[in-house]
Design a protein that fits this description.
three-stranded mixed beta sheet; Amidase signature (AS) enzymes; eight-stranded mixed beta sheet; 14 helices; 17 strands; alpha+beta
Length: about 475
């Protein structure tokens, strides 16, 4: 039996039809974890006995003719930013070590209600606030393609676990590329949903008990095939409980389901946020595959958006969202730093402080700038189905845990660039609430995965997922990292 790179929903179907038992599938993945997790540190909390009990209950239910849902008996893991009632939810914060919530996050509960068995949690950076996954509680998660490289963050453990075949399905979140960047670094598929369509309650931060949805952050699945992404999204999409009596969310059908007639815009590089040539080459090859299959590809078309000005707008709104939960002393320090700075200082270090210290009046002005960007995107997508662009400027880079983020550098075409550029392309779609799927499209000369970001119009999630499916069919499907493909 070799299950670790099969479709999660196909495995669940085989459980429901009696071809597999939930207990056997669970033991299979627990065996994978025992065999491979030590070299990766992707799973950081495990409830093997509780999962075994639940798997036995799933098998017994089927014998009685009871089906829990489309994920009946499927073992899976979730990012350790989601509250889970059977496992610790630490979020990389030493102050929360061994903290056990009373309830599941709403998104987790929707998967459980569909029959999933949550058997483990995957690693994140401290409070999901980095694009590398390491913390003082659980340590560092390695990339299965090269253990000396980062797996990304903040859904880094999730993507690494999927790539290594330790879990068939994962749940992630994204406020700065936290689904798409790890998917790109680890060679798996991911989907950042349109803002507001998946309940975020029970996510850390802010944590259990908070009712606010917050700004920018979204929930979405990671998988080894786009069919699983879409099936999981269908389970996750829902209004908050208070809105459920009257609100319904019905995502429109994809604007294109066949490559012939697909309208693709291609944005590979930008002077403000340069992209490594090997990343560009892999994305261009994917676009060429779509063109050969019948798509129209336009490399000159752009939304009416300046990437540098957009990054400033996004940086302010991002840090305002993150800063709202920071201690008073951090806010006071930010206010003092902004007061002492030159008015035209737009360095990222100060941009962070400006965002944290943003008044509501200033936030409204930045929000208006965002709305103008959204209008530009809306006009752009009248002529295109999707935009293909990088998830990040580089492939997975060596671990860098310098506590000063602003001192870190990434190498792009051999030249050092600011660490903040890791969010430059991810924020392009995120700040305007757009859906974006990520799909593996190639390898660098060093054998590291490269993914592409597939951006679509607001609520056009099915369109970006359809294009991910086209890329899987006409260009490249998921392939396992060396050494993990055997059973």
């Amino acid at each position: 039996m070799s299950l670790h790179y099969q479709s999660a929903f196909a495995i669940a179907e085989e459980i429901r039809t009696g071809q597999l038992s939930a207990r056997d599938v669970l033991e299979y993945f627990l065996g994978r974890v025992e065999r491979f997790n030590d070299r990766l540190n992707a799973l950081v909390a495990l409830d093997a006995e509780g999962a075994r009990q639940r798997a036995d209950e799933a098998d017994a239910a089927l014998k009685r003719g009871e089906v829990w849902g489309p994920l009946h008996g499927l073992p899976m893991t979730v990012k350790d930013a989601f509250c889970t009632d059977n496992l610790p939810t630490v979020g990389g914060d030493p102050g929360r070590e061994n903290h056990r919530p009373k309830n599941n996050a709403l998104a987790v509960q929707r998967l459980v209600d569909a029959g999933a068995i949550i058997f483990g949690k995957t690693n994140v950076p401290f409070m999901s606030a980095d694009l590398q996954s390491y913390n003082a509680v659980y340590g560092t998660t390695n990339n299965p393609w090269h253990t000396g490289r980062t797996c990304g963050g903040s859904s880094g453990g999730a993507a690494a676990a999927l790539a290594a075949g330790l879990t068939p399905l994962e749940l992630g979140s994204d406020i700065g590329g936290s689904i798409r960047t790890p998917a790109h670094f680890n060679g798996v598929f991911g989907h950042k949903s349109s803002f507001g369509i998946v309940p975020s309650r029970g996510h850390l931060p802010p944590g259990e008990g908070y009712l606010t949805r917050g700004d920018l952050g979204v929930i979405g699945p990671l998988a080894t095939c786009p069919d699983d992404l879409e099936a999981a999204l269908d389970l996750l999409v829902a209004p908050d409980p208070e809105d459920a009596p009257a609100w319904r969310i019905e995502l429109p059908a994809a604007t294109a389901t066949e490559v012939s007639g697909l309208r693709v815009a291609l944005w590979l590089d930008d002077a403000f946020c340069p992209v490594d040539e090997e990343v560009q080459k892999a994305i261009r090859a994917a676009a060429d595959s779509l063109a050969r299959a019948g798509a129209t590809v336009d490399e000159s078309a752009r939304p009416d958006i300046d990437l540098k000005r957009h990054a400033e707008n996004y940086g302010l709104l991002l840090n305002a969202a993150i800063g709202s939960g920071m201690p008073q002393a951090v806010f006071d320090a930010a206010v003092a730093a902004v007061a002492a700075a030159e008015p035209d200082d737009t360095s990222y270090r100060l941009l962070q402080q400006r965002g944290i210290a943003l008044s509501h009046r200033q936030w409204q002005r930045e929000h208006e700038r965002r709305l103008q960007s959204r209008a530009s995107w809306h006009a752009f997508f009248e002529n295109f189905d999707v935009l293909l662009c990088p998830c990040a400027p580089v492939a997975a880079f060596p671990h860098d845990h310098d506590p000063d983020f602003n001192a870190r550098r990434i190498l792009v075409n051999g030249e050092p660039q600011p660490y903040s550029h890791l969010t430059g392309w991810a924020g392009l779609s995120l700040n305007s609430y757009l859906p974006a799927s990520s799909a593996p499209v190639g390898l660098t000369l060093d054998g590291l995965p490269v993914g592409v970001q597939i951006v679509g119009p607001y609520l056009g999630d099915r369109t970006t997922l359809a294009v991910a499916r086209m890329l899987q069919e006409h260009h490249r499907a998921f392939i396992p990292p060396p050494g993990f493909g055997d059973s």
